[in-house]
Amino acid sequence: MTLLSCQCRHRFSGGFELDVAFDSPHMVTSLFGPSGSGKTSVLSTIAGFLRPQAGKVELDGRMLLDTDVGRYVPPEFRRLGVVFQDHLLFPHLSVEANLRYGQRHRTNPRAVKTSRVVEVLELEQLLRRRPRNLSGGERQRVALGRALLSGPELLLMDEPLASLDERLKDRILVYLERIVTEWEIPTLFVTHSQGEVRRLSGWVVVLENGRVVAAGTPEDALSQPAPLGWKNSLGPANLLRLDTLEFHKDHATGRVGDQLLYLLPQDIPPSRPLFVQFSPVDVTLSCQDLRGLSARNHLRGRVCQMVTLDQAVFVAVDIGQIFWAEITPEAAAELGLTLGSEVTCLLKAHSLRVVN
Which domains does the chain have, with CATH numbers? Predict the structure, then answer.
């Protein structure tokens, strides 16, 4: 079943042309691409802030826009919650008053309880404060709470983590996961971060220059050479979910399927779930199970995809979860890698960043 369907064509005065069409069957959809690719324009079309010259927007069977028949539902009647990068909280109101503002037109069955929103987003200690006395992460949590309390049928988030540092991004991602799990609200998430896409989304639409260049699950869409992540040998982001985590005297170990990852104990977040993030350049491949090396992590897997560029070969390895290694064309030839090759992946512990 399609939850969200969007078609829009629009030529802006500066010459930029938007010509986008996509359907999403998943609860969380990401619009992924660099600045200027058209992500925010698509979100604005869905929200009703932009009336395109041609287009259709349908949400769970409800037509919000159809230029063919002249249908246009104004933003205030679309029953959407919008969270922007710069929060847009009312500076003269307390956190509690900002939250209650989200309830003012709450008449649909998706309405949620204020007490539960405060509990899930951990806002109890902030209710009497004004926005100027909040950190960036705290303001973003309040903005999320206000959007939730409007009882939206779709949650739109426009680069909500872009202005936060890495530690705060990780923390807010935990709250976003709680929101998706708790209330099952369809969500459109605009981002230029592959890690955020892989962490949150069941479906991703990749935009470049106002066009869709790939769409599908994150593993499929971000594994194609066309998307932005491949250009200039930047490659895809790696994000492995840890099934368990154990602390030892001078290190920690995380389990990925039936294999263990050796981790440095510093700065491991206390909350769960946990993920390990690392770059493809930090992965060394071998066709043998090597011993006596400084790299503590030896993960066994099978090659499931290879993408050859001018200066690099990106190799996808399936260990129950898929991650990527970047090697030279010469190394790929010497190893004789083909689809189905069994490999050992060497990873140094200091190259692994544990996030939650």
Answer: 4-233 (3.40.50.300), 238-355 (2.40.50.100)
